[in-house]
Specification:
Shape: globular
Strand content: 15-25%
Order of helices and strands: EHEEEHEHEHEHEHHEHEH
Low-confidence stretches: 1-6
Distance between the termini: 43 Å
Structural class: alpha/beta
Number of helices: 9
CATH topology: Arginase, Chain A
Mean pLDDT: 93
Helix content: 25-40%
Number of strands: 10
Largest sheet: 8 strands, parallel
Length: about 325
């Protein structure tokens, strides 16, 4: 059908069309991924210990991300005098991993298969959860990595429980499962605060297994540059972001909100600093539960953080070939 765009073709406003991530192309065939970034939804929340609803996170973040689909020539940042995510950065959306209700193992296996397909294609995997347990299959998919990597976790909760009533793969366990992997060199866990789901011995275990643990107040006192400098210099980095790292005053749409969290630029400046120093090999953003936020602000925040993070990564890669995995 003919359109009435003011340039050529369709205007394709954010509220028109199918809600892929950033309104980027959809690739249904996981064996035919040809892109720099591939986005996978992991709509699993059976690992949740309190309020469920993060199964709708991928759908919510995708819909919110259409708000930022205007930038056909990239996103110009006047502060940095830089254009991020220009047409040279190819992003595709490969849809969702299939979730089998009540079956954690099968659901996690399907998520892992999606991440493995992305890695096999050479693209950067970006996974939208789902509860934080989806990080477990994401990390497992990297078992063929030639070099060890470090994990940067931005979160309110340590998520370092070993086992509780036989549960080892819920959303309180992912960082413990990650630390057990021989290809994970260590973790930097930032934003941890207040009433936690991990007991004192879990903190001791985390430190013994190579974790650096920083609260919101400690991170702010250090500043983003000093914080980034604490990560192993130049080591490849996997970034996992739990939306409850942010203060619920700006991100109420999550299952376990915790006051005293980060504000937007607290996290954004950390991400900008670490992407200047480390090749980023994978990303997940989890625990967005849209139904607890009728304003939609939490999903918008998640989408905006992901798009800015991708912008930082590829801008840094363009300026420094050493940052390309």
């Amino acid at each position: 059908m003919a359109g009435h765009g003011y340039e050529s073709g369709r205007l394709d406003l954010p509220f028109v069309g199918i809600s892929t991530f950033g309104k980027r192309p959809y690739v249904a065939d996981w064996q035919a991924i040809d892109a720099d970034v591939a986005v996978l939804g992991a709509p699993f929340d059976a690992g949740t210990q309190w309020r469920s609803g993060a199964r709708f996170g991928p759908r919510g973040v995708r819909e919110a991300s259409t708000l930022f689909s205007f930038g056909h020539a990239g996103a110009y940042d006047h502060e940095d005098d830089a254009t991020y995510l220009g047409a040279d950065v190819r992003i595709v959306d490969i849809g969702d991993a299939d979730i089998v209700h009540t079956d954690t193992d099968a659901s996690h296996a399907n998520i892992e298969a999606g991440v493995r397909a992305i890695l096999a294609s050479g693209a950067l995997p970006v996974v939208i959860g789902g509860d934080h347990s989806v990080n477990i299959p994401c990390i497992r998919a990297f078992d063929g990595c030639a070099n060890p990597f470090h994990i940067l976790q931005i979160d309110a909760h340590l998520d370092f429980v070993d086992e509780r009533h036989g549960v080892r793969h819920g959303h309180g366990n992912p960082m413990r499962r990650a630390a057990e992997q021989p290809f994970v060199s260590g973790l930097t866990q930032v934003g941890i605060r207040n009433v936690s789901s991990t007991a004192r011995e879990g903190y001791a275990d985390a430190r013994a297994m190579g974790s650096t643990i920083l609260s919101v107040r400690q991170a702010r006192a250090m500043g983003p540059q000093a914080l980034a400098a604490t990560l192993p210099d130049g080591m490849p980095l996997y970034i996992t972001i739990d939306i409850d790292a942010f203060c619920p005053s700006i991100a109420p749409g999550t299952g376990t909100p915790s006051h005293g969290g980060f504000l937007y630029y607290d996290v954004l400046e950390i991400l900008q600093q670490v992407t200047r120093r480390h090749p980023v090999i994978g990303i997940d953003l989890v625990e967005v539960a849209p139904d607890y936020d009728p304003t939609g602000s939490t999903a918008i925040l998640g989408a905006q953080v992901l798009l800015n993070l991708l912008g930082f990564i590829f801008h840094a890669r363009a300026g420094d070939p050493a940052l390309r995995p």
